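Ticket #4471: structure export looks truncated?
Reporter: QA, pipeline team
Priority: medium

Steps to reproduce: submit the single chain below to the structure queue and open the exported record.
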Amino acid sequence: NQALAQHRLKYPQHAQPDAPIYDQSRIDQLCRWMETLTDAAPMLEGEPALPMLYGAEMNEPLLRIARHPDIHLIHLLRLMTITGHITARQWARPMMIWGTEQSLQKHHNCHPPGFTLRELAATLEAIGLDARMIGYDILSGFPQRFQWLSGEFADYFCEHLQLLQDGLENRPLAGRFTYEWRDVRANTMKVLSHFRSVPAGLTSRIWEIAIGAGKTDRARAQEIMERVPDVRQRLADALTSGDYQTRVVAAEWLGRSHDKQAAVLLHNALKKEKQDAAKDTMLTALERLGERIDRYLDRDQLLVDAKRGLKKGLHKELAWFPIHSWPDVRWQDSKEPVTAEILNWFLAQTHKLGSPEPGAVLRRYCQQFTKEDRESLGKFVLQCWVEHDTHRKYTDAQARQMAKQQAAQSHRMFPQVMTLEQWEEATYKTLCLECNGSAIKQKGILALAGACCGDEAVKIVGDYLKQWYGYRAAQCRALVAMLASLDRPAAIQLLLSVANRFRTKSIREEAEKYVKIVAERKGWTIDELADRTVPTAGFDETMILELDYGSRQLTARLKPDFSIVLTDENGKPLKSLPEPRKDDDADKAKAAKKAFSTAKSDLKKLVAQQTARLYEAMCTERTWSYTDWETYLHQHPIVGQLCQRLVWAVVDGDVVAKTFRPLDDGTLTDEHDEQVVVPEGARLRLAHGSLLPAETAAAWLQHFADYQVEPLFTQFGRNRYVLSNEKRDATELKDFEGYLIEAFKLRGHATRLGYTRGQAQDGGWFYDYHKSLTGVGLNVELRFSGNGMPEENRTVALMGLHFSPTGADAPVMPFDRPGIFLREVPGVLLSECYHDLATIAAAGSGYDADWEKKVGI
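Actual output as written to the record:
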């Protein structure tokens, strides 16, 4: 009755005047059904006994009932059939409506030891329902369902193997909508990952997926097959398959195996391999296994192969490439020129392979070029590809003329949206982004760039991603793959930045994938990768950058505030770099100016990137060994300066033993100016107000004020957010639900706090801002009532904030949210995100009881 009354009040436009408010006799009847109903089918022939009210109006009463000590599982399931939350007739398959699982989870938690999936299935069958609805939900478009019972997936599905068989075949489960089965095979693989051994009846099909030509689901299938005893023999047989794609997949798989016996198999297979793509993959696999492949490199044979392979010329899709303008390239040892035939052959081969990641042979040959020539070649290929991909369709004059014509029409139709001048400028910018064609079909030649490029490629890729992410996502993903091949600190840092904070989901996930690949290749964690590849912008450990003019050496010195002081050869300060004198080397002076300009640009980006990374480390409660902290953070010329503006804690488990701040002389001090000595085996983390006594936090704030040091970001001063017992099982912070704010204010504050705009959904509207924390595999999502695209400065309402997994475990559909329990979120992260939400709420007009009406929900 309460739920129905609330629904009428909240949605008066949906109210049904004749909908009953149940009297005591009807309530008694419903309670008797809960106690005695053994066959739900008659109940579900037509409408449910209660109005099907979803959302908070019905879920909250169900949650209260689920907690009641006298309510058994069978009572709760019977009630859900009465309310229509469990249905067998109204949809194309038996299913649980959204909201059902929360009540089941609440019952499980409040009635220890809880129920198992098999007991849930048996109880469903006891009241005449199909227990397969559990498996349907887990395998179909709701991959977050029942994750809290994931440890029991194997027991349940052993009794429903046919569901897994159908899932592996990618057969549509009996549902009405495409999204209900579009990820069924991927979800089936996730379920199978919980099995200790692979069910015998499924092994053949999983092997076919694992070794097949299609990449979809292949990686997870290979992980599952690793548990099959004869997998190595299967791979040995696959290396001799008549299908070269099978040989390629087998070689890639063996290259990741860390199995020395795999190297023997690959060497033997190479003796007979004739297909270039398979041969290259086998050599790449051998290199990953630590084998030397120099024996397979033969420059004379390379030239013979090039001449033979180019007899028919380059592929017609490469007709645009300026092969007659190759830069000069020399072999490093002999200084002999690399012939145009070899460069053309590399171009043809990479295009044929179609992957922007260079293979081992190409990398090894390119490493034999002189360093300057190699990097010049890589930059040339990359720039040619980018220029071909983004060649403008209209000249500037044409775009201006067309913009005037189109803007006039748009303004007549929508004069309230923008002025005529604004319409013209917006249309002009859009026309400038229209291109003649696309280079995505030639993305393979990026492998040649990936084998050769230096740090200059990082800026080219970064600029492309910044400008074209919304128009050319496939090309952006190809450039991300190429970037991962460079194995240079600047490239890895950009890759990490894209993986953590890029706004487009597909590009961000591609970067996440390659971050994991690079980390695995080096044998590091993702956090260790981030620490150990921070560039220095050219400054040495003493914060000095030497600038060589030939006859004299100028110096650029980095100050603690990241300003740069220039001095001449006599130590006299300079306002800027001088023009070269007659006795200077003009080329060296030009190179010095370029190095200084690059250093200033890189420094600004590095400070922003590392500040964001250290803040994330504080939120996620990351720890370092003292040795790693000293080597990769404290001693770093740039990160070390940032460390001096932060307070660090020595921890023993979860207990803070002492806190300190690094000083510019390399020593460590506590809040009372006493020197701190950290034991060699200690572990460190960034301090936070929620972990320290109030007096210690206050003392540190006074310390920073006394020494006039500006903290890098806020560590102290925010009240600690304590999760109440009632919210421990919640999956969303809703403390500021209904607080109103202008959309542009929300965007500005969210952006400054590190959030990016979410993906647009149906109708071109988006409903969230989010940020990814790759190190702990979490996505923080700030939900609001929504805004359309293009954005308008409408009044919107905050709704909540929750945390969901990233990568392969990320939610697929909007209604798979919210994610993990708040009790599972690191305490500092939860506290910081709460204050993010509070900061944004404070910028608005406050709570409004009629917020839903005012924002149009």
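Status: closed, not a bug. The export was complete when the record was re-opened. Leaving a note from the reviewer for reference: Residues 212 and 845 are 57 Å apart (CA to CA).
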